[in-house]
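CATEGORY: protein folding

GOAL: derive structure tokens
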Amino acid sequence: MKITEIDFYLCHYPLPAPFMPSWIPGFPQHNNSCLITVVKTDEGIEGYSAMVGFLDESRGLVGMMRPFLVGRDPTRIENIVQVIRSAHYLGYKAFFMEVAMWDILGKKAGLPIYKLLGGGDGRIKAYASSGEIQEPKKRVEYIKEIQKMGFRAAKLRIRSMEFEKDIAVVEAVRNAVGDDFDIMVDANQGWPIHLGLVEWPRWDLKRAMRTAAVLEDLDVRWIEEPLFKHDYDGMAALRASTTIPIAGGEFNTDLYEFRDLIGGGCLDIVQPDVTLAGGILMGKKIAGMAEAANLQFSPHTWTNGLGFAANLQLMGSVHICPYCEFPFEPPGWVPEARDFMLKEPFTVGKDGYITVPDKPGLGVELDMEKILAHGEKL
């Protein structure tokens, strides 16, 4: 089998309402912007993937990847990874394209990716992942809404300038839900973006320790990204100081950074994103490293519907994944907008679990009508 053509679509799908992501303070998001990739082969099988879309970077990436991948065998994924890794050294974040090769391989084999990788039971407990900083009252309203949907766990963003505001949100939610509900918190300190639009906190080890000490009494399931993604010594010291598990890794890349995170005793829950960290094959290797260190594994999924599908397939292939992250922040970030490129958006069952698609490959179909209506072919 050979890759004959690669189509790229830079899409900007309008959100139903402005979304204010915690990780880009003060910068409202009006679109779900993504670069969708369709890899075509001489056997008529197509593979899909997508990354978060940045205009200039997307155009440069397209020019780099087409000549290096067309003509190659997409089922030789180790070989493809080396090509994409080389592009990464040159500054192009193209690891997401590896996912399309797994989609092709799964369709060729007639199996979903998670079964090609070993196969789990196909169902994972989901948690609703909020994306904005909200006042306690509004966040409690959100929790009540997701409980009706079936969720029994949620992740809250704690990125206020004042320590007390962070605690107040978690405290209000814990009081509202009682003990039979898991609460995770995310400080978004792993890859700080500062556009100078509003004040934002940069946590040091002391603030992280102070926060963890108080949150222990609120039975927090984990603290995510409490320090910069390369502050291995700081994360190890924080982890040793608290009973709350430490999670992170969403913007770390390749095996070497995860080797240092795991070997350095930095994390309890390892959270690569296959579209960012090196692809599905790399994600499986990282999961193996986590398992060998007796850690848990719960990939990051805050990208788009195709990115969610890829990480979900990886989660379904391991037995150390306690939760699947389900990005949900209405009215702006909802499944219909997140998954606009798919014919069927992902949903969570009333039991709080999500089912891994059992169709070949990623198990999803593209909605080309929406892609063409909101995208530019590059």
Q: What stands out?
A: The mean pLDDT is 96. The domain at 116-355 is CATH 3.20.20.120 (TIM Barrel). The two ends are 24 Å apart (CA to CA). The CA atoms of residues 10 and 55 lie 8 Å apart.
